[in-house]
Predict the structure of Thiolase domain-containing protein.
Amino acid sequence: MTADIFITGSGHTRFGRLDQSLEDLIVEAAREAIEEAQIAPAEIDAVFLGHFNSGLVPDGFASSLILQAYPDLRFKPASRCENACASGAAAIHAGLNAIRAGSARNVLVVGAEKMTHRSTPDVTKALAGAGYQNDTAEADLSFPQVFAIAAQQYAERYGDPRDAMARIASKNHENAMNNPLAHMHKRMTYEHCREVSESNPLIAPPLRLSDCSLITDGAAAVVLSADNASASDADARVRIAAAEHVSDFLPMSRRDFVAFEGPERAIRMAYETAGITVDDLDFAEVHDCFTPAELLIYEAMGLAPKGEGVRALEDGTVYADGRIPVNLSGGLKAKGHPVGATGVSMHALGFRQLTGRAGGIQRPGAEWGLAFNMGGAAVANYATILQADRI
Amino acid sequence: MTADIFITGSGHTRFGRLDQSLEDLIVEAAREAIEEAQIAPAEIDAVFLGHFNSGLVPDGFASSLILQAYPDLRFKPASRCENACASGAAAIHAGLNAIRAGSARNVLVVGAEKMTHRSTPDVTKALAGAGYQNDTAEADLSFPQVFAIAAQQYAERYGDPRDAMARIASKNHENAMNNPLAHMHKRMTYEHCREVSESNPLIAPPLRLSDCSLITDGAAAVVLSADNASASDADARVRIAAAEHVSDFLPMSRRDFVAFEGPERAIRMAYETAGITVDDLDFAEVHDCFTPAELLIYEAMGLAPKGEGVRALEDGTVYADGRIPVNLSGGLKAKGHPVGATGVSMHALGFRQLTGRAGGIQRPGAEWGLAFNMGGAAVANYATILQADRI
C-alpha cells in the first residue's frame, strides 16, 4: 500500500422492493455520496459501477448511467466492474487502483441492482449463471443448492451446522431491526429458524428459507479520495488500510469448497497489509448470502478454528453486543442483497460506522472494520480493512 | 503517465464462426499470450477479462474462466470489465491501472465473445441493450438504426456520406484478405458496396448490409508488463505511450451525436500524452462497427476537418499503401467483431505490427500506432497509443 486513500462520502438507498429504475437507484446513491463528501461533481476524476445484471434488467450499458447524476460528470471515464456477487467490491478495488495509479484523485463508486421486478425463478436462474456452466453436474445447480452442498460437506467433516445456521439467521434479522435501510424488519427466533415449518420450508436440504438472503433492489455509493484531495476533515473520512482480492477456480470440482481457501487468503492478506489481527476488529460486514457462508467466514477470519465456527456464536463474539459484531446491518440475510450494491453497501456502512454516523447500528468508538464481499461459491474474494481516522 | 508499461506478448484466436466455447476461446488466447511473453504463469499478478455477454452465453462469472488456462493462476485476482463494445479496451485500461498502482507487475488481459450460436435477431437485441433504455424513443433502436441516424445527420449537416461508406467497406474487406485471422475473406468492390442489391440489401437506410460489422466468435489476449518486469528484449515489446478513456452521456438526446466529442477528446488526449500528432501515426486500428463510425473517426483523429472525412479516402491516406493505413486487419467490418475481444484484438495486432510480426498485414518499419475502441454510439471511448521499442 502506497499513499493513503480514504472514503470521504457515502450514499445508500433504502434496500427493499422499490419502484425506482436501475438508473434512479444509481443516481440517488451517487448524489448522496457526492453531497456527503462535500465535493463538486467536476472534481470526480473517474466513476466505477458494480453491477451484476445477468439478464435481470435490459440496461446493457450501465456504467454511463452514473453520469446522469450531474451534468459535470460528462466526459469522465466510466467503467462497469462485474464479478458476480462481488461486483460491488470489484468496483471499489478498481477505484482504489485508479487513485493509486495516479489517474484519479477522487473517484465515485456506485453499486446497484434491480431485482424484485423479476420472478423468483428468473432471479434464481440469473444468479445460477455465476456457477460453472461447462460441467453438466455443476451447470444445473442453483446457489441454494451450492450452499446446501457446503452445509452437507461441513456436516460430514465437522458436524451438523444447522444450529449455527439458525443462530446466524436469527442474529442478522435481529440486527436489521435497528437498520432503517434494511429490506426486512422482522424478528426471527432461533427456534423458528431451526425448524422446518410451513413458514420456513426446506429450500435445498439442509437450507431452510431462513438460511437464504433476500432478493432486493438497491444502490450504495462511496467517494474515494487520495490524501489531500478533499477538504474533508479527519472526523469525516475513513482510511482504507488494506484491500485484497483473491480469485479461485470456478469449477467446484477443482477445489475443496468447505476449505474456503480464497476467503481465508484474502482476509488474512488484508490483516497483514493493515498490520492488525482479527482481535483488533471492532466489527465486520461479511457476505452471508446463505448462513453456511457466514459460518465459514468466521473460520476464514480466524474467529474460530476450522469446524468450530459455532463457538463465535456460542461465546457471543459476533452478536451486536459482542466483541466483534458481524453484520450489524442485518447482512445480506435481512438488509438484503441487491447483488452489485452489496459490496459497496458494506463499505458505505463501514464508513458511517467509523465516522460515528451509523445511527441505530452504531458501535461506539469503533476503530477497525472488515468488509468481506464474495462472488460465487468463494470464487471472487474481496477483503477490505477500514480504519477510523480520528487519531 | 509514470513509469513505462509494455505489451510483451499477444494471443489471438481465429475470428469467425467457431465451434469452441467461451471458455475454450479464453484459454486459447491466454495461453498463446503467456507463451509469446515467455513468462511463467505464476509471474502473472492479475488477470482482466473484457466480455460483453448481455445474455449471449449463460456464463455469468466469466472472469474466473481465465484461471482455467494454468494451475498456477489459482488465487490470482481476476476481474471482468464491461463497457459494451469497448469492454476489451476497458480490460486493457484496468490492467494498466493495476500496474501503475503497483499492485501488479505483469497482467494478463483477455477479451472474448461467443456470438454465432445465437440467431441474428437475438444478437441484435443483445447489442441493442447497450442503448439508452429509459427513453421510449431510444430504447427500441437497434445499433444499425443508431448509426443510420448518424449517417442521416451527417448527410444533413455535411453532405451524403454513402460514397465514403462504400469506400470504407471495400477497403476493409480488401485488407482482411491478407489477415488469416479475419472472419471474412471476401473481396467487395466499391460498386457492390455502393449499390443496394439483392446481395447487399438495405438494413437501416442508408446503411446497407456492407456497412455493418460481423457477428463473430473469438478471443484475443495481451500480457502487459512494468518495465524490467519481464525478460523480453526490446524487439519483442511495445510501449504503451498513452491510454485515455472518455465517457459520454448514454442518451443521444443529451448530446450532438455526429460531433463525436467523446472519441475526439479521447484521441486528442492520447496524442498529447504520447507527445505526437496524427502525422506521426504509422497505422490505426479503429472501431468501424458501422462504416459511418470509421468516417467520423477519421475526423476525430484529425485526418480531415469535420464533414470532410472522405478526403482521407480520396487522397489514399487510409488505404493499406497509404500514409496512415486504417484497419489493416480488416477491422470490425471484415476481421469481425466479437464484442469483448475487439479492443484487445486491436492491441494484440498493434503489438504484432510494431514488433514486425504482423505477417501479411505488416507495415514495414512502423513506429507508432493508434487503437481506438468505442462502446455504444460514442459513449465509452478508449484511445491507446502504441510505440515500437526498437530505438
